[in-house]
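hey m, so remember when u said the C-alpha cells were messed up on ur end? i reran from scratch. heres the input so u can diff it against urs
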Amino acid sequence: MAREALESGLYDTLQFPFSSLSSAEDLELAREAREKDVGFIAMKALSAGSSRTPLRPSPSSEATRASCRSGASRGRRSSTIPRLEASPPVLDDAMRVLIERDRAELSGSFCRGCGYCLPCPAGIEISMAARMTYLMRRSRFELFVTPEWRAKMELIEKCTGCGGCRKKCPYGLDTPALLKTQLAGYRELAR
C-alpha cells in the first residue's frame, strides 16, 4: 500500500514504520521517497519498543536515531525536530554492530505492534503480547508483571490457532507461534 501511494504521485508525504530494524525493502522505500521528493515520516521509529532501551539515551537508542536520520529526507523535517538535531548521532560502525545484534535477535519474530492482526477472537492483545519479553527486558519491568498483565498474557492459552492474525500480518509473522514463545518467556521473566 505504501509503495502504491508513493508511485501514485498523489501524496506529498508518506508515513511508514521505519527504524534501525527496517528491512532492505523498507530502506528502499525511503530512498524512493527521497528521489521523488516525497516527505517520509518515520512511524514507530523506536521499533515499537523492541530496540534496546529506546526510551533512555543509550548506544542503541542513538543507533535508532542515527539510522532514521540516514534514511530521512533532509528537506522536509518537522519544526519539532530541532531539539533532537542539536547533537545528532552519527551512524558509525559501533552503532551498526548494535543494529545488527538487534536484527539478529528479532529476525523473523519482530512484531511492530501495528495492530493489523486485531481483533483476536480469543481476546488476546496481540500487538503487546507478541513483543512482551522484549518490552520487559528493555523498559520498566514492573509495568508488565501486574495481575492485569498476567491475566492478559494467559489468554494466549486460549489461542485456537485460527490463523486470522497470521493472514492479516503485513510482515508475514507466524503470530500464533510467536505468541506461544512470548508466553513462555513472560512466565520465566515474571517469576
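this time it looks ok to me. The longest helix spans residues 175-189. if urs says something different then somethings off w ur setup not the seq
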